[in-house]
Amino acid sequence: DITNNIDTSKVGDYEVKYKVKDNGNNESLITRKVKVRNNLEPNTIYLTFDDGPRDGTTDVILDVLKEKGVKATFFVTNNGSDELIKRIVDEGHSIGIHTASHKYDIIYASVDNYFNDLELVKQRIYNLTGVETNLIRFPGGSSNTISRKYSEGIMSTLTEEVLNRGYQYYDWNIESGDSSFAMNERKLYNSVTSSLSHDKYNVILMHDTKTYTRDALSAIIDYAYSNGYKFSAITSNDMLIRQKVNN
Ligand code: ZN
Asked: Distance, CA 101 to ligand 1 centroid (Å)?
């Protein structure tokens, strides 16, 4: 029986209370202090772009990031031109693996399927850039429930198995909403800027495949700078943003 008020997205000290019973059925309450610490910095924005690269959007996003002096993190697939993969790395961004196909019915059908698909992008990145990345983002995030349709319990297995194989997976704590059908440039700007917080780190899920993400990015960055935020790319030394696994 455990109660706690831990918010792992917020650095701080937390108390966890355990109710324990001994053999004589005497109940006692144990309080344990938990520190949430990490290398991610508060007041910092970690822009993360999934599903690309895509010609016509990723290239413009890279232009904007370069112009504004912002480093971001791209979780890529097998889509888009090789040139964009090279640019991501050459221009100092972090690159991670999202999976080659991004097809839930394939990647979440079995553990072997998932890793075979992962390996295709890993090789692509390595062949083009020489970078052996161990950064991962699961399609749908580690908390996705859609995978249950294809394999019961697979996220519980995969979230452990990727760590066993030397990968680190990263979720997010701010969903920009840019994959929603009702999204547009203005709404995206409002959604992201209203979610930012100075006292936590802000790991934002975005998609470099979306035209309104491309179009809103410049104004989002301007807003962040004029409100005192910093930007950073995720590295494999960073502490992790992990959601609760639900399958
Ligand atoms: Zn995705």
From this structure: 10
Q: How far apart are the first and last CA of the chain?
A: 22
Dist CA 89 CA 161 (whole Å): 27
Closest alpha carbon to 64 in 44, 79, 49: 49
Span from the CA of 98 to the centroid of ligand 1 (angstroms)? 7
User: Which residues make Cβ contacts (< 8 Å) with residue 209, sequence separation at least 6?
Assistant: 51, 52, 54, 57, 58, 79
Q: Are 54 and 77 in contact (CB under 8 A)?
A: no
| CA 241 – ligand 1 centroid, Å | 16
pLDDT tens for 164-221 read 999 999 999 999 999 888 899 999 999 999 999 998 889 999 999 999 999 999 999 9
Give the three-class secondary structure for 221: helix
Q: Model's pTM, two decimal places?
A: 0.84
* pLDDT tens per residue across span 77-86: 999 999 999 9
Q: How far is the CA of 224 from the centre of ligand 1 (A)?
A: 25
Alpha helix stretches (DSSP H) within the chain:
58-68, 82-90, 104-107, 111-129, 154-164, 185-195, 211-226
Maximum alpha-carbon separation in the chain: 69
* Residue 56: CA count within 13 A, CB half-sphere: 5
Cα 145 to middle of ligand 1, angstroms: 14
Q: Alpha-carbon distance 156 to 142, whole Å?
A: 9
CA angle 179, 210, 170 (to 5 degrees): 60
184-to-56, 65, 164, 188, 236 alpha-carbon distances in Å:
17, 20, 40, 6, 32
